[in-house]
Amino acid sequence: MAKVELSSTQKKELEQLAVVMVEEAISVKLDYEQSGSNLDENSIVAIHQDSPLLQDEKEKLGEVAFNITPKEKK
What are phi and psi of 71, to 5 degrees? Predict the structure, then answer.
């Protein structure tokens, strides 16, 4: 596999993305610790990549999905 050199702009963008991902992971972890989950350990939630739930990254899932029905295992 060929080694790819990133420009300073690309490196800066990756660093910014990494910070955002870590912040989001911390937020999710804290939310889970405080609120828990209403899904049991056998639940599966599937969201298709073209789902309207994923159209706006800034919109919180709770603002669009009021009733999430877990998908049954096959």
Answer: -75, 140
Residue at 53 is within a domain: yes
Which among 38, 70, 65, 66 is positioned nearest to 54, based on CA atoms?
A: 65
- Coil, helix or strand for 71? strand
> Residue 60 is part of which domain span?
8-64
**In whole angstroms, what is the distance from residue 16 CA to residue 18 CA?**
5
Does residue 73 form part of some domain?
Answer: no
Mention every residue, 6+ apart, whose C-beta is less than 8 A from residue 64: 52, 53
Q: pTM of the predicted model, to two decimals?
A: 0.47
Tens digit of each residue's pLDDT (9 = 90 or more) over 26-70: 998 998 888 877 767 776 667 777 777 777 777 766 665 556 566
- Is residue 2 domain-resident? no
Residue 1 resides in a domain: no
